[in-house]
Amino acid sequence: MRYQISGKQMDVGDALATHVETEFEATFEKYQQRPTDATLVFSKNAHEFVCDAVIHLSTGLTAQAQGKASEVYAAFDQCRERMDKQLRRYKRRLKDHYREREEPVAFGPADLYVLASDDDQWEVQNDGPPQPMIIAEMEARVPTLSVGEAVMQMELAGKPLLVFRNEKHGGVNVVYSREDGNVGWIDPRGLG
């Protein structure tokens, strides 16, 4: 497993890096997960240390957690406990989905644009209605998943929505967190 342990405007020593690797190895061994890589970023926010962790599992899923405390080791421990809780909650579902999947999750390329939110930055083209100005262009990766895997991935990543390609029919779908606590699923394949 590859670890990328860094600090934002702070030095992460060898002792902390060794502690992180040892503790995460024990956590993943407990749940029999095979992570491919882990990215941990330590930062300081006023008087608190913050630890952000993103783990990519061999099943194609991503888990992330954050911990905050007045000491850097305590921030990491809180982050690890949250990651542990997520993996414990999803252990059965992760194993079930991995058993059914014969090949790793496939990712397809997609264009990602950041649009200006300020109305003053909108462009008028050919005397038509104003259009938002594109202020950044990037590439995103869209996974091919089942609906159940997409919901689990969204919850593991702590995101409000996930765009994915439905492995049953290849169409683009969206799952999202609703205000009532349920999960919504948009499948536009029947439109047209």
UniProtKB/TrEMBL annotation:
<keyword id="KW-0963">Cytoplasm</keyword>
<dbReference type="InterPro" id="IPR050574">
    <property type="entry name" value="HPF/YfiA_ribosome-assoc"/>
</dbReference>
<keyword id="KW-0689">Ribosomal protein</keyword>
<keyword id="KW-0810">Translation regulation</keyword>
<comment type="subunit">
    <text>Associates exclusively with 100S ribosomes, which are dimers of 70S ribosomes.</text>
</comment>
<comment type="similarity">
    <text>Belongs to the HPF/YfiA ribosome-associated protein family. Long HPF subfamily.</text>
</comment>
<dbReference type="InterPro" id="IPR034694">
    <property type="entry name" value="HPF_long/plastid"/>
</dbReference>
<dbReference type="GO" id="GO:0045900">
    <property type="term" value="P:negative regulation of translational elongation"/>
</dbReference>
<dbReference type="InterPro" id="IPR036567">
    <property type="entry name" value="RHF-like"/>
</dbReference>
<dbReference type="InterPro" id="IPR003489">
    <property type="entry name" value="RHF/RaiA"/>
</dbReference>
<dbReference type="Pfam" id="PF16321">
    <property type="entry name" value="Ribosom_S30AE_C"/>
</dbReference>
<dbReference type="GO" id="GO:0022627">
    <property type="term" value="C:cytosolic small ribosomal subunit"/>
</dbReference>
<comment type="function">
    <text>Required for dimerization of active 70S ribosomes into 100S ribosomes in stationary phase; 100S ribosomes are translationally inactive and sometimes present during exponential growth.</text>
</comment>
<comment type="subunit">
    <text>Interacts with 100S ribosomes.</text>
</comment>
<dbReference type="InterPro" id="IPR038416">
    <property type="entry name" value="Ribosom_S30AE_C_sf"/>
</dbReference>
<protein>
    <recommendedName>
        <fullName>Ribosome hibernation promoting factor</fullName>
    </recommendedName>
</protein>
<feature type="domain" description="Sigma 54 modulation/S30EA ribosomal protein C-terminal">
    <location>
        <begin position="131"/>
        <end position="184"/>
    </location>
</feature>
<dbReference type="InterPro" id="IPR032528">
    <property type="entry name" value="Ribosom_S30AE_C"/>
</dbReference>
<dbReference type="GO" id="GO:0043024">
    <property type="term" value="F:ribosomal small subunit binding"/>
</dbReference>
<dbReference type="Pfam" id="PF02482">
    <property type="entry name" value="Ribosomal_S30AE"/>
</dbReference>
<keyword id="KW-0687">Ribonucleoprotein</keyword>
